[in-house]
Specification:
By secondary structure, the chain is mainly alpha-helical. Helix content is 68%, strand content 2%. It has a two-stranded antiparallel ribbon with strand order 1-2. It is flat, with a radius of gyration of 41 Å. Residues 31-60 are annotated as: Disordered.
């Protein structure tokens, strides 16, 4: 009886042993995969790169505004200055004309040897000229009031960009010593620059001017 029972149980024991081995194999594989994932290179610290493009991007990030955005704001500020010049000019004309027209004039009395009518007329034109000159200042002030986030403060973003822009203009424009009546430096202060494309055109114009100015000029002795 016992021999028969052992004979019947022997196949069942043989089937359980491979299952145990397979479970051990699966457990070992899972532990090895977890250990390999913990040492994955994705979790390694990434050192900052010191190549040229990263330095360029860092220098660009130091500026408070991007160049396209700054040139667009500069164009808007110029439009504000131009738009306010018209009303300030007429305001100076009306105020000056109204004031001098209200004064009593005596044709027999001269002002510095000139009739009072002509003096008052010239003074009225002077008031109109003052209004014309005050227009850009008024426009810039209104632009600053409508854009306080970039215009207020000692070192406002717009002021920093203006300084950087004029430094680039000063560094890249042609030498004014070679200027003549027939060969005038184009856009000496960069007033016509309103975008990156116009800035590139300005650089080309400066290069053409330098070639024209240096053509035929003898080299200096060492």
């Amino acid at each position: 009886m016992s021999r028969t029972t052992s004979t019947l149980l022997r196949p069942i024991l043989k089937q359980r042993i491979p299952l145990a081995n397979s479970s051990l194999t699966i457990r070992y594989a899972s532990s090895s995969s977890s250990s390999s994932s913990s040492s994955s290179p994705l979790e390694a610290p990434i050192e900052p790169s010191t190549s040229g493009p990263s330095r360029t991007s860092t220098s660009i990030q130091n500026l408070p505004l991007s160049w396209p955005n700054y040139l667009n704001l500069r164009k808007q500020r110029k439009l504000w200055s131009t738009a306010t010049t018209v009303p300030t000019t007429f305001l100076g004309l009306f105020l000056g004309g109204g004031y001098f027209a209200s004064l009593e004039t005596d044709p027999s009395q001269l002002i510095m040897g000139i009739e009072a009518m002509y003096v008052y007329g010239g003074a009225t034109m002077g008031c109109m000229a003052l209004g014309y000159l005050a227009g850009p200042t008024v426009g810039s002030s209104l632009f600053s009031l409508t854009h306080p986030s970039i215009s207020k403060g000692k070192n406002s973003p717009l002021e920093v960009m203006d300084r950087e822009f004029f430094n680039r203009i000063k560094r890249n424009r042609a030498d004014p010593r070679f200027q003549s009546a027939q060969n005038i430096i184009p856009d000496f202060y960069g007033e016509k620059i309103t975008s990156l494309s116009t800035y590139r055109r300005w650089l080309r114009d400066q290069a053409v001017y330098k070639r024209k100015a240096m053509h035929g000029v003898p080299a200096e002795d060492a």
